[in-house]
Every structure is written in structure tokens, then in C-alpha cells.
Design a protein that fits this description.
The complex is a heterodimer of chains A (about 375) and B (about 230). Chain A has about 375 residues and is of the alpha+beta class. Chain A has 12 helices and 8 strands. Chain B starts with a helix and ends with a helix. Chain B is mainly alpha-helical and about 230 residues long. Chain B has a single domain, classed as Butyryl-CoA Dehydrogenase, subunit A, domain 3.
Amino acid sequence: MQGFALYPFDPPGDIAALRADLRAWLASNQPQDDVVSRANCWASFDPDFSRALGAAGYIGMTLPARYGGRDRHPLERYVVIEELLAAGAPVGAHWIADRQTGPLILRYGSEEQRQRYLPGIAKGELYACIGLSEPSAGSDLAAVRTSARETAEGWRVNGQKIWTTGAHLSHVMLTLVRTEEGSERNAGLSQLLIDLDTAGITIRPIIDMAGNHDFNEVFFDDVLVPHGALVGERGQGWKQVTAELGLERSGPERYLSSHALLVALIDATGPDPDPALATLIGELTAEMWTLRQLSMSTAAKLAAGEDPMVEASVVKELGNAFEQDMPRRVQAIVTSGWDDENDLAKLLRALLIASPSFSLRGGTREVIRGIIARGLGLR
Amino acid sequence: MSAARDMLCDTARAVFAEAVTAGIAPVEEAGFGLLLVPEEENGFGGDWGDVNAVLQIAGVVVPDLPVAELIAGEAYQPAATVSLMAGAMGQALTLSIDHVNTRQQFGRPLGKFQAVQQSLAVMACEVRAVEAAAAALALRLDAVGLDASAADFEIAAAKLRANRAVGVVTSIAHQVHGAIGFTEEYHLHRVTVPLMRWRGAHGNDAFWAARLGRQVAALGGHGLWEAMTARGA
């Protein structure tokens, strides 16, 4: 941790032009949804938008052209992602496939898996979910019990996943399963890419406290999955999953999920704010600017092939705190009725209710702080 | 870091160590006042990235000497203070980690207790944020040829972020140290007291927050993102 310097964020090509092209594209293609869908927009599911975005070349950007990708640099993708989030575009449908599943299939997957799944991901047509948590394995992910036994016909999968975001809208689940009978903790785990229309899979909704259906419980009842569904090496599931979580923790979504609220606050305030509002806007801006530097530096380090596990956790911890703090502080200072229907009031209500989840998804605050502490040499 | 900056930092460590007892004279004699003066004007050259690195060392070793004033003029003092603060915060973290890994209570090092681990993780996040702010501000100042007015947004954001970290960093550092950290003999106060002072120097939280807030309000809601991306990366 000591002697930290920013890793240079230096994408190839004309980044100003990349931003300008995407902003122009969004101006004519972003649906004029309700303002609430622009907050927490990586949970806004819009397959039409995803297909259009894929056709325009903004999904699966870093994948090789032979798999339908665009051969772009990871930091070019980063720029695209931060622009989409800042605009509040509904990127939820393809979000996980683009961010995690595609890169993971490219890195660990077989040639058959790459050809089968990557082109659909890049088109914005094939969506994925992540099967990690189970009823008895939340923060303690190494306690997963869902089993896969190898038979002559393929893998027999039995067990249950829970809190699976988007399972009801996805085509595939990247599933962490126990392939070695009698194995314990993080040994004997593997990843299977399971088509969700396979017989024996039951997906049931779990409605969240905002009234939304985002996550699900997924049951596997003697599900037969082909041998070719194994991703990467048998028994190396833990290593692959932890690498994948690094991709999940440090992205710009950790500080830009609530950007729509800051935009609405500034617009409602006008160009001549009173001192209290100016102070709030100033403090939120300073935090956001700093988070952007940290996130870009971490992305650059990832792109250079390093493993910035601790830095990624710092981005998540600070980003979550910023995004949970923002609606509370806005509410403390802005006069706004709970049921008011102006943009600011609607965003405020939605984000106050959504914000408890920010420090739960992708690793709880306590787990993340534990990772940072280990990075400091404390465990 | 470049080899040249590594050498500069080695020199700074040696000279500042001498200055702890000798005062500012050896720092002047070593020519730190010529940092940022172009080589063709018989200076040392260098950029704000170098100044940032040197002042982070000064913030730890000689927090009470006017090293920042020797290197840069009034317009740069808020930026210089961010570097001093980043250095002092890094040292407060180092001292805290060393202490909790050494000090034993209840039969094990303090650092084995989850409550202590979680506190230090919170502190480390703040320290890293300020280090990032100092580094990003240096990039901006160097990109605009050290024109402080062209880096006004970054100066405000970085100084404000550093100010806001002071309370968390100093309180956790002292809390995990216990009574020994409150003594004159132990050197934690050599970084925490300057941090308290620097928070109020060259613009406290209210000053920079109001200034940055007014600047952003004038940009408008979407203007903030456009301005931020136009200014870097």
C-alpha cells in the first residue's frame, strides 16, 4: 500500500473523439425513460437498447474481432463505460456479460465456448448472470455446496443459488460448483457455464424492498450439463472467481451509479447556489473527482496485467460510502416532499431506498475492509 | 518513478534528516529552491510530480520547516500542502500498522483483532484517496505548464479531499496507538499535529467547498461531467 503513485491512464487512440462519437450516438439513441431508470442504471434492463449499443460497437469492445469483438484496448472500453454511466444509459441487460462473463470466457474458456457465446455477447443479445451466493454461502463464499458430478453423459448438477441478479432475464449462468466430492472450502470448486433453458432448472423471483424484481433464487434439480460447459480448469474455480471479482469491484459504476442525482441537484440549484448548497456540491464533487482518479488508476493497472486486488477494494469501499452518503446529505439540505414528483425528489426517494444494497453487492463492506486489512499486512 | 526522481528523493531524505536539527539552512544550501527553476536559468528543472514527491518526504521529516515556501510561490501553497498532507498521512498509516503488528494485548497482536483491522482499512482508504488526489493534481499542474489558475478545479478538489481525510486519519491513528501515541516521546504527533494545522492552512473545508461548489453550479448538471472529462483523460 505504501508509496502509492497513480498508474498512468493512457489509452491508445483519440479518446476525445471516442467520447464525442458516443455522446452523439447517445443523443439520438438513448431512450427518454423516467429519470429514476437513469440512477443505478446498470440495473436498468433494456434489450432494445443493448442490441443497438452492440450494433454500434460499444459492447464486447475488447474481444477479438474473430469472436465479434472490436479489438479495442481495455481503457477505451473504460471510457465508454464511464460515458454510458454518466449519461444514465440503461446498460443492465448486457452489463454482466460485457463486464465479466465475456472476458472470463475469453481468458479461460474453450475455443468452442468462445465461438458459441462471445459473438452473442458482443451483439448485446446474449445475457449472463453469476451463480455464486447460496443460502449458506454469502460472505463466506467458500462454503458453496451446489455440486456437479461428472458422469458419462456430462455433469449432474444439484443445489441452489440465491441473490442471482438477472437470472430470469439471462441466457446463461456462470456457476460456481463443487466438482470434487468431499472437498472443502476453496478447494475442489469449478465454474460451469450453464444454459438456463436446461431441464431441471427452476428460477423464482425475490422481490426487493423497492418492489423490484432484480434478484432470484435458482434451483438445480439433477440438471444434466454437457462436459463442454466446464470453464477453465477443473478444481481452479476459486482462483478464477477471485480474479473475476477484481473486474467487478473497481469500475466506474462504483461511483457513477448515483450520478443522475448529482446532476439533478446541480440543475435544481441553479448557477447561484446558497452557501449550504454550494458546500454540499463542492464536497460531493471533490469526492467524485478523487474516486475517478482511483478508479482510472486501478483500471490502468488491470489493463497492464497486474492484479490490483487491494486498490480495487479501496475503490469499492470509498465509492459505496460516497454513493450511500450522497442521497442522505441531499435529503438533509434540500426541501423536498417524499412523494413529490419532480426529478430530484424521485431520484432521492429511489436512491435512498436502493442505497443499502450498494455495500452488500459485490462483497460486503466488512469483507472488503478485511481484504484491505490483509493487503496492509494485518492478518 | 523515474531514476531522476528516485535520486531527488534520496537527496531529499538525506538533506531533510540533517535539517531536523540544523533547520532550513541545509535545505537551502542543497538547492531545493531551484527545483522548478528551468535548467537554462541555472535551476534544477523538474516538474510538479517531483515537487509532490519531495514534499511528501518533507511532510514526514520536517513538517515544521518552510520547505514548500522555499520551492513554490503563494499561488501554489494549497497544492503544496496537499503533498505535505499525503506524506504525513502515509507516515501515520505506516506507524499505525507497525504498532498494531507489534503491540500485544489479550495474548496476540492488536492487528489480529477484526475491530482494529476494520479501522485501519478505513484509514488506509482515506490515505490512498489523498495520495491519489495529490498525484492527480500534479498531473494537471504539469499538463498546464504550472499555470495554477488552469488547475483551479483540481487544486480545490484535492485540498478539500485532503482536508476531509484529516479527521479520520488522525483519530484512527491515535485510537489504535493507545496512550503511547499521546506522549511527547513517541513520534506519532510529529505527523498528526501538522495534519491538524494543515487542514486549516491555505483554505479550510468551507473555503474550498464553497468555491468548488459555485464553480460546478455554474457548469450545470451535465456540464460537470463534460468539464471533468475535458480536463483529464
